[in-house]
Design brief:
nine-stranded mixed beta sheet; 5 helices; 11 strands; single chain; alpha+beta; two-stranded antiparallel ribbon; 188 residues
Length: 188
């Protein structure tokens, strides 16, 4: 994620977030591990996330369809990606069928403007904001509430990945040791 103090957790043997599954009970165990930074109100600074791929129509100039990554994040997920800035509109409301769209998606695909709607996952989603991620891969993503997107795509008991912020960038080895000692996390 471009930050030395962020760690992404995937299932063992997963080649990408899209092929990873982390069960909700495992996510709860991870929340209790040491060396994870805390929010101002004492919650672990981590984001349980789902990642799926959908097809959208390219702009009329290019034609055809392309794969687009949709990421369900938590409120903490926005704090973990300081390079991401809203450029138009607002952030989606938690608990709603609203999304924000990365700058590359906005430029390359039809119907990716603020106040337009995109249908996927059996639901219609309203675009309420555009964001720029400084040229990172997040520019090619659509973001929404992890719970809402999870329900639409059938991820009610699992996540694709977990992104955490360490208390300090040099705490990775200590975190890794604590993680590996937890027998219930052997599949991750």
């Amino acid at each position: 994620t471009g930050s030395d103090d962020n760690v992404i957790i995937l299932r063992k043997a997963a080649t990408a977030e899209i092929t990873s599954i982390i069960m909700r009970d495992q996510a709860n165990i991870i929340r209790a591990l040491p060396y994870i930074a805390k929010t101002n109100n004492g919650k672990p600074l981590l984001s349980d996330e789902i990642v799926v791929v959908i097809n959208l129509a390219y702009s009329a100039k290019k034609g055809g369809f392309g794969n687009v990554t949709v990421r369900g994040i938590t409120e903490e997920g926005t704090q973990l990606r300081s390079q991401v800035k809203l450029t138009e509109g607002r952030m989606f409301q938690w608990g709603s069928r609203e999304i924000v769209v990365g700058s590359s998606i906005h430029r390359r695909f039809q119907g990716a403007n603020v106040d337009e709607k995109i249908k996927f996952g059996g639901d219609e989603w309203t675009i309420v904001g555009l964001f720029d991620a400084g040229g990172s891969g997040f520019d090619s993503e659509i973001w929404g509430d992890v719970i809402q997107l999870g329900q639409s795509f059938g991820y009610t008991g699992s996540f694709s990945s977990i992104l955490i912020k360490l208390e300090q960038p040099d705490a990775f080895e200590q975190f890794k040791t604590a993680f590996n000692q937890e027998i219930r996390l052997q599949t991750l």
